[in-house]
Specification:
Strand content: 35-45%
Helix content: 25-40%
CATH class of the largest domain: Mainly Beta
Largest sheet: 6 strands, mixed
Radius of gyration: 45 Å
Number of helices: 4
CATH topology of the largest domain: conserved putative lor/sdh protein from methanococcus maripaludis s2 fold
Order of helices and strands: HEEEEEEEHHEEEEEEEEEEEEEEEHE
Number of domains: 4
Low-confidence stretches: 1-36, 361-374
Number of strands: 23
Length: 374
Amino acid sequence: MRNMILLGLTVITATGMWYYSTSGADKQSLEQSSIPDKGNYRVAMPETVTVEAIKFMEIVDTIESIGTTHANESVAITSKVTETVSQVHFSDGDHVNSGQILVEMTNSEESALLAEAQANLDEARRQLNRQLDLGEKGLAAKSIIDEVIAREEAVQARFNAIAARMNDRLIRAPFDGILGFREISPGTLLTSNTVITTLDDISVIKLDFSVPEIYLGTITKGFKIISRSDSWKDREFEGVIDTIGSRIDPVTRAVMVRAKIDNPEELLRPGMMMTVKIITDARQSLVIPESAFIQTGKQSYVFIAGEDGLAHRQPIRIGARRYGYVEVLEGLQPGQLVITEGGFKLRDKAPYRIDEASELDLSLIENTSVTVSS
């Protein structure tokens, strides 16, 4: 019985050893058939990737805000005196020049007084000239001459006062600009509170907007701005910062800024809402597509497609990151090829193969110019 048990164990052991050696050989042959050999070493299958050349691009740093437009000069035209309108010399929306007469008011009484004052002035001057001639001949006392001079000066002062009252009855444009709607008609009784029309100088537009106080040390007078309006969606309006407010709003923690925009076509009008971009910096920098950028914790890196057929992991330091591009401050050189798709499947010095569907034309890439705003 003991001999039969030993015989059975021997048969089982031999069978197990034969199965193990056979299956192990099959597995080894399967692995060797699926992984290509390079000499006496096994190599991994290359990953299919797409690549793009690193190049210089212009990067523009901006601060964005929303502002409201104002006329360069603006006034409501009113009258200094209470009187009725005799003539109106303008129409709605007219362009006028400084000093141009807009309205004439009734001035019959002042005209009569001015004519009387003119006659009195002429007589006073004749008397003065007569006394001066006599004085030169020694026939008039100095006291008489002084009295005539004083009388002439008094008459001249009265004439000037009446002439000023006459002038107050002529409403003139105080500066060049465009008029608003006409609010009066001939015969209207004007008072100091009556608005005749409005006058705006819109050859230059003031654009007021707020900027967070954290940027106060970044912006300065003369910085360029680019603004847009919903009224002119396809137009950009360029201007410069003219004034930075002297106070920070304690509630919003923002400072008011005023820019000026030349408006020769008069496309912009007071009261419009506009988006504003302040250009704080413009520079040429190395840029890579955002798809090539990999972030692991605090480490940033890309894979460079090496000429040796291997993907090399390269740490980088990045800057602005906007609109599908990443600015590279350190770690790369222009002309290198970065892997833009397939990089997450790679490890350092892994083999790669460029996707035939993405035909890489380096001449086109080198001649491409892109502006990135951040």
